[in-house]
Amino acid sequence: MTAAAMAITHQLAGATPVGSAAVLQRYRRSVLPTFGVPKRVFVRGEGVHVWDADGDKYLDLLSGLAVTALGHAHPTILAAITSQIATLGHVSNFFATPAQVALAERLTAMVAAPGEAKVFFTSSGTEANEAAFKITRGTGRTKIISTEGAFHGRSLGALAITHNPKYRDPFAPLPGDVVFVPYGDPAALAAVVDDQTAAVVLEPIQGENGVVVPPADYLARARAICDAHGALLWIDEVQTGMGRTGSWLVHVDAGVRADIVTVAKGLGNGFPIGACLALDGAAGLLGPGSHGSTFGGNPVAAIAGLAVIAVIERDGLLQRAKELGELLVAEITALNHPMITGVRGRGLLRGITLAQPIAARVADAALDAGFIVNAPRPDVLRLAPPLIVTTDQLRGFVAALPALIDDRGHR
């Protein structure tokens, strides 16, 4: 960012550059406390690094929860967004734009042949799942099967299919007729899916539950169970899709055809965008006036999505995610640390499992040492670094990990 641009940014933010303490004081006065107290105030990002308001530098191994797949301030994404917003920033969905249509074509081509899928654009993964929820109601059935440990968002519809009682209970009653079964267990799924089931919703890997990977044939067996009862198979790839796990979409790589697919996060590299894809008969379950989104599919978000896809293809980042993920597993395993019980996941979505519930403390120690990770479960550390991360950067974190676990990693 140029000096002039930084000056404008600070002016619009209502203050000259100040330290974290002053910003956090203003935060507490003006922002709802739904996220608690922020751990840092970040002011700049470049590549795989971010800097806080006190000048400290961090290696971002979380990518804003699997969002900035190409890192911060990526020149190609910046150029695409800047060029588009200088040309046309927004029109309502009474009208179409070339970028919107082009992105719809690219996304639908990932799941089906031309004409076999259609897309509804949103501004987030939660909104994409809300759209998917409404599609399932078009079947004339209301029963939805979700899984224990599932996370699909915090709005009421998405929350209804999210399992965690801590999130659900304060907002009950939620949109109903949702049944939860153990994740990764096709027999449990088969026992509850019947001819009154509208849809089964599954994550190919449960990210928020600690990067839980199901058996290899789980999605295929879920597909067969749905087919036997005329139910829709809804795959939530909000966290796993768009290259994060080494393929565009995990379920497609597994040879499974879904009826509904939701994506977001890495699609915009930080620009808010999500998409709900509907295939075959599901594509006809929402008609004119049945759903809407003011910002969904606006040309700037669409061009961001197109640019992300282009860069991932150009730079071979799908294969890179696979290779770096395998390297990460090998390097962490080679530590032979008694507190590390395993590394699970796929590509560059990884969970380090710990022998004791110390993950939150280790994540805090990592932050103090200049590494951004998080603890989705008490005994799991989650890594979701940008796909452009280098082997040396990953090795630097692995080398620091034993001290972080032993709480000797503070600056």
Tell me what the structure shows.
By secondary structure, the protein is of the alpha/beta class. The protein folds into 2 domains: about 15-75 and about 315-405, Aspartate Aminotransferase, domain 1, CATH 3.90.1150.10; about 90-315, Aspartate Aminotransferase, domain 2, CATH 3.40.640.10. It has 15 helices and 15 strands. It has helices at about 5-10, 20-30, 65, 75-85, 100-110, 125-135, 155-160, 165-170, 185-190, 220-230, 250-255, 300-315, 315-335, 360-370, 390-405, and strands at about 40-45, 50, 55-60, 115-120, 145, 180, 195-200, 230-235, 260-265, 275-280, 340-345, 350-355, 370, 375, 380-385. It is globular and about 55 Å long. The two termini are about 30 Å apart. About 45% of the residues are buried.
What labels describe this entry?
411 residues, alpha/beta, seven-stranded mixed sheet, four-stranded mixed sheet, 18% strand, globular
Can you summarize this structure?
The protein has 15 helices and 15 strands. The chain is α/β, with parallel strands linked by helices.
Report the total helices: 15
User: Tell me, what is the CATH class of the largest domain?
Assistant: Alpha Beta
Number of domains: 2
Which geometry do the CA atoms define?
A: globular
Helical percent range? 25-40%
Mean pLDDT: 95
Low-confidence stretches: none
**Which sheet architecture does the biggest sheet show?**
7 strands, mixed
Question: For the largest beta sheet, what order do the strands appear in spatially?
Answer: 4-10-9-8-7-5-6
For the termini, the CA-CA separation is: 28 Å
Give helix and strand order, one letter per element, not per position: HHEEEHHHEHEHHEHEHEHEEHHEEHEEEH
Provide the CATH superfamily of the largest domain: Type I PLP-dependent aspartate aminotransferase-like (Major domain)
CATH topology of the largest domain: Aspartate Aminotransferase, domain 2
Rg calculated over all Cα atoms: 21 Å
